[in-house]
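Blackboard transcription, Thursday session:
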Amino acid sequence: MTNERVAVAKTYKIYIGGKFPRTESGRYYPLESAKGAVLANMCRGSRKDFRNAVVAARAATGGWSKTSAYLRGQILYRIAEMLEGRREQFIAELQLQGVNRRRAESEVNASIDRLIYYAGWADKYQQIFSAVNPVSSSHFNFSVLEPMGVVSILAPESSGLLGLVSNIAPAIVGGNTCVVLASQSKPLCAISFAEVLHASDVPGGVVNILTGFKPELTGQFASHMDVNAVVYCDGTVEIAKKVQELAAANIKRVVARVARDWSGDSAQDPYLIQDTQETKTTWHPIGS
Amino acid sequence: MSAKEKPKTLQLPDLDRVALVDEVGVEERVARFRSRSIKNASKVEALKMILSMIDLTTLEGQDTPGKVRQLCQKAIHLHDGMPGLPHVAAVCVYPPMVGIAKKALGNHNINVASVATAFPSGMAPRQIKLEETRIAVADGADEIDMVISRGEFLQGHYEFVFDEIAAIKDACGTAHLKVILETGELGTLDQVRKASMLAMHAGADFIKTSTGKIQPAATMPVTLVMLQAIRDFYFATGRRIGMKPAGGISDAKLAIHYLVMLHETLGQAWFSPEWFRFGASSLANDVLMQLQKQQSGVYQSADYFSKD
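(Written on the board underneath:)
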């Protein structure tokens, strides 16, 4: 009898509405390491998976947008804590996908720090972006930010974890829910990050993560009428044109974050939160 | 013989001899209905069919004449932007709203259905139930949705329930009678089958699953058992009975599964609002969203469809 153990490989599934289903399409694509070894069979998400994810995200908007800013900050901090506890797993996954040890470490560290950064902004961005406006009538006139609702995010291709976190965090800290398409070539961390979210008191449906082919799904992310804003992080002029044209059907906001270096300090600022916020201006009559 | 003619003699069958239901078999059969592949062209036809079978419903204690008029307007103008679609079958309201709905719907060929008989509990003396039914019919209700006395049924007082349905049917006159079994309170599928048989023998034109006030409301297993009862009753008597699942059917996909079940249990002959209805309030919007999706190729948002 031998004591050699058969390693248990993880099945990477997608994350919709707080659950980990397989793609409804039953399609997969093999993810290969630099040396050509198959690392995992990733779900090749379909437009129906995306539709289901939007339904889940829409259902979660009511509760999440009404969660107090303080609690949203606490939950983001909790995500960072959970990620910290699983650093080694994420470093190992990044290395599998061709990132060297030193860079993998710094990417995971930066991801954790980025979550802490946005956790801190949770109850502060309102102050800097809101205003009492001078008007020449007997009104008290003020503008405040409100979350837009459902945000679809085409995550950066080059940065499997940090790029993902850097786009999810500012969307959800502002009370939005989101549907994210992970990097097609570096998708492992995205699904493991879904497990982190799942263990961090983030309500089901607030973040939904799909894996699949960008060219196939970009159009869906841009055209869905029940999506309020679309964020894209890569792409040629043709893709930008396509996204903007399709987004016009329901006048959803288009946020382009192309060719950014997600590792720098410049990749985080409260304007990324503002990107997916709507300004509401109220005219309140006062006695003159 | 059409369902509109009254059967000559009504007789309560021996319910102890009603065949028992194989619960596991029903679950498995239902699972099969849910796995049918529906191609796009069929889907569009199914969605149109569903639309024509909907009883647009508002049954809240807080209903006002304004709310009912609004619902009627919605029924009339449901899809002005998408010409060529059928209208809904009926608007379903409480008895005091029947006159208002009738007037609001005018001559648009949409029926007014009224719940009656102390809906949803059914806890009232028979005299009052009959009076309520007569008032609703006099006010112009084309269809009456009655509830059975579940307490009496569960105690085994089948004669009582039978006589009650027959009496209400009599009070309906020319109005169609739908009998709500409230399957969520009957407990087992055997009881559902018994109650279905009882209601059909007592003169029901339709049998209906639920009030929508009790969970679980309409489920596919319960509906399958009722459809099978309708089939057996049809073979035994030649009388055709309609079916109305109500409560909890809020999306088009699920409604299509119901149509598949209807097709494979009773067949094409029941594919008409005359024989099959959906009791729902939010289903119509989802059906319209799916039709729009089929036309435009883009997934739709509830933001662009009227709420009530």
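Lecturer's comment: The mean pLDDT of chain B is 93.
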